[in-house]
Design brief:
Distance between the termini: 44 Å
Largest sheet: 4 strands, mixed
Helix content: 25-40%
Number of helices: 8
Oligomer: single chain
Strand order of the largest sheet: 1-4-3-5
Length: 240
Amino acid sequence: DGAGSDAFRAEWFVKIDSDTWFFPENVDHYVTSRNWTHDEQHYFGHVLNHRKGDRGVSIVAGAAVFFSRATVLTAAEAFEKMPLDKGHLEEDGTCRDSYTGTEEVVTAVCLKTQAGVVAEPAIDSQGREEVSLYEIWDILSYNRTDQGEWWFWQDKTRFPCHDDGDCLAHLPLAFHHYKDPSWFYDFELEFYPKENDRKPYRSRNGKVAARKWPYLDERVYPYFERIRAAMKARDLSVPV
């Protein structure tokens, strides 16, 4: 505890899954562009609303969960006080220890009930998601009108991008659902190439890439180009 603890060695914190690719410099840009400070309460990421009905909270999907220092300290206090006697049981919508695969719910409930902190959606000004929950080539094909209001879309503010195939942020914070670590090396090559790096794959339309990404010509390459342009414009990436 106190100023010497790990909580005071950084201003912003992220919990990410092992199959999540992370853009740390884009997180810095995201919070500074909103004039957020680490001593304010901020708990953000890809917000889902399908547990509002039974648990009364929106949650940040566990793929990548972002906290200000103030919120980390708030969470630590709430977790320190939570009852431990029912830790062998599934979560029940209260701030207590639980045997669960839905730590997102427990975190959201504790923050809301103990400190009034609620999940904030990480989206850009056009409503594009900063955190992709599934493979990017799938998310880029989503059409909210065609799909209907399943849990992914439930109670989200509607934006035109939900139907136009461009609903992932151009300065993304994280990509989730890449179980094979080799994908991470290829993201590195796409966005942070070293001077002598060469991308080994060339598509039928002449697009050069780190690998044969699914739907490369139709979806992935154009999206990668938007990311590279946005990062270069803000001096966040190694020039390609």
